[in-house]
Amino acid sequence: MEWSFRTAEELVAAMRAGAVTSVELTDEAIARVERDDTVVNAICVPDFDRARAAARRADQARARGEDRPLLGVPVTVKESYNVAGLPTTWGMPQHRDYVPAEDAVQVSRLRTAGAVVLGKTNVPLGLQDIQSFNEIYGTTTNPWDRGRTAGGSSGGSAAALASGFGALSIGSDLAGSLRTPAHFCGVYAHKPTLGLAAGRGMVPPSEPALPTEFDLAVVGPMARAARDLTLLLDVMAGPDPLTLGKAHRLALPPARHERLGDFRVLVLEDHPLIPTGAAVRAGVNRVADVLVAGGARVERHSPLLPDLAEAATLYTRLLISGSVARFPVGSDEQLRTRAAGLSADDRSLDAVRLRAMVSSHRDWMEAAHRREVHRHGWRQLFGEFDAVVCPITPTPAFPHDHHPDPLERRIDIDGVEHPYFDQLVWAGLATMPGLPATAVPAGRSPEGLPVGVQLIGPAFEDRTPLRLAELLEQETGGFQPPK
């Protein structure tokens, strides 16, 4: 029997029943990687010897009567996480020889839960792209179409899952980096509520692994099944033991509902700043139809919804000002000259990005205040609704585009070109206010490419969109392996 596309939950049950061992699962996963990954290029740092040793220890532990949530399950880890003894480069050539001595807190939690780490998955340069390619490890391709991207920045993890390279993966999300690759590759991902899962050790190479609270970024789970997301999130969630963990214990509330017919859902398919492509629009409406058929209350409009154009502008300001502070894109003087040359009437996202590159702390504080206003608006909306269904990006996976200046790239939406980074506005809808969002498969495009949508839920009620994802999976069939 082939186990490579079974869910983590099924693998755990099979090992408990004695139907398979962790060593067998690990050997099968490694054989598949060695056979197929020369084309996909998802696993950029294999760790097969240590994985086989961990699998043997897992089988020995189970023989002693031990049972942990992920005992013996093969998994992968995004390259940006520190794993003791393996390089952490973030795809940056100057750091190709950096090897941390300590695991990131989430890698430690995986090991404590009994997972077998197969290796690390590919990322874009500095995690700063919607594709996953870099000079050190090359390009990760989409398992559904090798000429298209698997997404970024957790593209290697999504491609690995779609290819059967391990049952689970951990990634991160600042600009849709969990959700977009899941959407492009036909798998599941969950962007947790901001601050729910500790991120220490998911840090640029050579920087100290401090227990820092991120402003927008989160770490989170990826899987081939909705229930597996919950299984992995329960391992990942909780405060850092160095900080809030000294006083706080996590107790996530249960999902608001257990039956599909009890959910109240707002469905969005249009954004004021960028069109939604036909394939993605069809995916949103497929999910809406399933919800209606299941008896859920579905609405298409609400006066409680925060202004989407302002939300996208605030997100862009916060995202770019933070990114440029860490990864400068030019001299401050040059950027200020370019920003000063903008028309005062230019409110395009390109203009917002440029102004954000030279924003002051006062500018950031003003944007952060407006973010709190939006958060309050979302709290009011989630008094009337349980989840929001909307796109992740306007299109399915697009062809590889390695133009050296990402600002010069364009995204084709039904034959019309738009600025490349404008496609981030849907991801930012949940990121800016720090809300949880679950990416779920929603069918195929006419070309046979996966299409996903996101389910946005109330802050710190992550189990609500996750439960809705499970119920939708039961109706739609969820993940299907690439043909």
From TrEMBL:
Cellular component terms per the entry's GO annotation: endomembrane system
Start and end residues of each Amidase domain: 24-464
Matching PANTHER family: FATTY-ACID AMIDE HYDROLASE (PTHR43372), FATTY-ACID AMIDE HYDROLASE 2 (PTHR43372:SF4)
Organism: Saccharothrix texasensis
Protein name: Amidase
Domain of life: Bacteria
Pfam families for this protein: Amidase (PF01425)
